[in-house]
Amino acid sequence: MNIPSLQTQVSPEEWALRVDLAACYRLVAAYGWSDLIFTHISARIPGPEHHFLINPYGLMFDEITASSLIKIDQQCNKLIDSPFPVNPAGFVIHSAVHEAREDAGCVLHTHTRAGVGVSAQAGGVLPISQQSTFVLASLAYHTYEGVAFRDDEKPRLQADLGTANFLMLRNHGLLTVGPSIADAFLSMYIFETTCQIQIAAQAGGTLTEVNPLIVQGVAQAMRVQTSGMGGAFAWPSLLRKADRLDPSFRT
Q1: 200: domain range?
Q2: What does the pLDDT read at residue 91?
Q3: Cα 92 from chain centroid?
Q4: Going by C-beta distance under 8 Å and a sequence separation of 6 or more, which residues neighbour residue 202?
Q5: Confidence (pLDDT) at 33
Q6: Ramachandran angles phi, psi of 108, nearest 5°
Q7: Does a structural domain hold residue 204?
Q8: For residues 21-34, b (16+ Cβ closer than 10 Å) or e, as one string?
Q9: In a domain, 134, yes or no
Q10: Which run of H or E residues covers position 238?
Q11: Burial 179-193 (b: 16+ CB within 10 A, else e)
């Protein structure tokens, strides 16, 4: 694909966000979390306008570049011309989260086998791994209402999410909210790993659960693990990984 660069047409802040978001799409593909073209990662552009970046609908995640990302408003209207469509149904969930959460700089949604598998279990996420303790400290659930294309679902989703940073969409998949792309990605890495471990553990013998008191102190443990930087602690190394895979995401 020959997509003209938008670097000179947007602010330096928006371009940096575009590069990070394109890298995030490539990394989601690299880690095997993509579902062909059918999930989305959105990022809010800093400023009072409530503008967002989202993937061009129809491109695989490993094809996405900084310039191919589409700039839209809260109603999913394109703000910069693009030959690619946007999936309005895909933005319903994302717009609901961005609308309700001023701290939602990035919303990342997946349909992985492990994530959907655990989302279909009545018990949801079980406290059986170190990773699960981080998720359980800020986890919410939303009941499946069919393919999310109706705006009337948004208030219920917003109420279910509340202030949580991990949302399990029942019978559907996983969603993370972060103040930055780096935070949302690291949260999804932990969420997905939690689900993979749970599915694997359930194939074995009797499960051993973590002491509930440990979950209560997990926020401090996470700050120690990341030197208080959250996702920013791991993001530079992830960008280097994305560059090694294919640096064309930066174009």
Answers
A1: 7-250
A2: 84
A3: 14
A4: none
A5: 98
A6: -120, 125
A7: yes
A8: bbbbbbbbbbbebb
A9: yes
A10: helix 235-245
A11: bbbbbbbbbbbbbbb
| The pLDDT value given to residue 3 | 87
pLDDT of residue 130: 93
Judge whether 1 lies within some domain: no
- Token match 């948004």: residue? 154
The CATH number linked to 175 is 3.40.225.10
- Mean pLDDT by groups of 10 residues along the chain of 251 residues: 90 97 98 96 93 96 98 92 85 93 97 98 97 95 88 94 97 97 97 98 94 80 68 94 98 96
Of residues 29, 30, 32, 168, the one with CA closest to residue 55? 29
Tokens in use for 162?
Answer: 């509340």
Q: What is the DSSP string of 101-170?
A: -TT-SEEEEE--HHHHHHHTSTT-S-S-SHHHHHHHTTEEEE---SSS--GGGHHHHHHHHTT-SEEEET
The domain tally of the chain equals 1
The predicted structure's pLDDT at residue 218: 78
Q: Which residues share a beta bridge with 142?
A: 169
Query: From CA 48, how far away is CA 205, in angstroms rounded?
Result: 53
Neighbouring-strand partners of residue 71: 53
Question: What pLDDT was estimated at residue 228?
Answer: 72
Two structure tokens written together for 157: 């989703």
At residue 99, the pLDDT reads: 94
Would you list the DSSP string of 168-185?
Answer: EETTTEEEEEESSHHHHH
208 part of a folded domain? yes
Answer yes or no: are the C-beta atoms of 55 and 91 closer than 8 Å: no
Q: For residue 52, what are the contacts with CB-CB under 8 A and spacing of at least 6?
A: 42, 43, 44, 45, 71, 72, 73, 74, 94, 98
Contact present, 3 and 67 (Cβ < 8 Å): yes
